[in-house]
Amino acid sequence: MTNRSIFLVGPMGAGKSTIGKLLAAELKLPFADSDKVLEDRTGADIPWIFDVEGEAGFRRRESEVLRDLCTGPTRVVATGGGIVLSPENRRQLRKNGLVIYLQASVDQLLERTSKNANRPLLQVADPRSRIIELVEERDPLYREVSDIVVDTDYCTPRQAALMVAERVAPGATGQ
Ligand SMILES: Nc1ncnc2c1ncn2[C@@H]1O[C@H](COP(=O)(O)OP(=O)(O)OP(=O)(O)O)[C@@H](O)[C@H]1O
Ligand SMILES: O=C(O)C1=C[C@@H](O)[C@@H](O)[C@H](O)C1
Ligand SMILES: [Mg+2]
């Protein structure tokens, strides 16, 4: 069993929040979602924070949340898709945990993010082009911080969670 926290990174729609919850249950570890912690602390949702404080305000809050989630108990943390943009965040991730990069194709990311409007960076006329831009910019950063890369295109969230669990704690899953 791992004694380091597990951080899930990757683009919007990769499944960090969905798979993270299942992975935490599988490994019997507590779960935290940095976006959710940030919203609870602020008392406002992400679109509101982007509207009022801009992306810069959101990023400041996100870095504070990450610093806090790097201390305390070993846990599974689903991060926000842009967490890797800050060099200091990347340093914190590498130093404090095992980092898993959840990958998916542009088609899958588009489909999975099209169901709701709670991602301000995708509220544009052409979300496909925006996803392509974001992936091009961030893929090298996700790779820079990650210990393990997992492709989530051809599996259900449960299968992906079991795959990650097997990589981080071989033999520990009940599958
Ligand atoms: N492997 C998968 N197969 C099919 N659907 C998936 C898979 N993983 C996640 N989904 C679905 O995609 C949607 C987005 O997933 P989720 O919110 O977990 O992404 P995320 O990586 O946390 O995104 P964000 O960075 O915006 O928080 C959800 O509706 C989820 O059920
Ligand atoms: O990819 C991003 O920059 C974001 C992803 C989400 O998880 C949220 O953190 C927010 O919508 C920004
Ligand atoms: Mg999420």
TrEMBL record:
Mg(2+) binds at S17. It catalyses: shikimate + ATP = 3-phosphoshikimate + ADP + H(+). ATP binds at G13, A14, G15, K16, S17, T18, R119. Gene3D superfamilies: P-loop containing nucleotide triphosphate hydrolases. Keywords: Amino-acid biosynthesis, Aromatic amino acid biosynthesis, ATP-binding, Cytoplasm, Kinase, Magnesium, Metal-binding, Nucleotide-binding, Transferase. It is found in: Cytoplasm. Substrate binds at D35, R59, G81, R138. Its cofactor is Mg(2+). One of its GO terms (molecular function) is shikimate kinase activity. This is Shikimate kinase. It comes from Microbulbifer halophilus. The lineage of its organism: Bacteria, Pseudomonadati, Pseudomonadota, Gammaproteobacteria, Cellvibrionales. The gene is aroK.
